[in-house]
Amino acid sequence: RMSIGSSRVSDAARSRGDQQFVLVYSGGAALQAAVSADKDTDTSAMGQPVLTVLRYVLASPYAGIIIDGASGTARAVYPRALLERMLAEAEPELEIKSLLAGERTDATAGEIAAALTRAKFWLAVNTATEGRYGVAEARSPQGDRLLEVYSHPLEVIAMGRGDQPAPMTPGQLANALRADEGITGVIVDAAGPWIKLTRDDLAPLLAD
Length: 208
Prior knowledge:
- By secondary structure, the chain is an alpha+beta fold.
- It is 31% helix and 30% strand.
């Protein structure tokens, strides 16, 4: 979820040159930092699902969003073109990312494994030797080999390694795991928040 915070609706936008950006906050601490910075104690906040915020911005003439504007290096600016790409390539309900960002319980791993049987996801690929493509793997300190799975193409770009996102179906992922017994599981959204799923966790996927 995101919060749009302002003392008046018109104050929820900030100008940069001749462009206006919507101010959004990732949580209470970020909103409190904004209140402390501008001394506007009449500020209020309205929590909204991420997709609702993005659709609102793109349905209006705004140039993008500013996230946690008073939070120093944690501040982020997302221009309209990037938001359009984010929304176009996202799964409709952001199921995997919502589970990753939510409270972790003993059921979380199973819920994400179940989501992988129906949600859109991507792998990170790069050009290996002799022009062939290689698929990104992570290695744990214990020697586990984990396929890197991502909930959105931009999660791959965020790793900063020059990899490209490649869409994968649940059946293709299951076949890849069956074909290489040395792969011990997957890591989902390695840039964070992330989770490691073992082959046992992935039983619903492998059962199909």
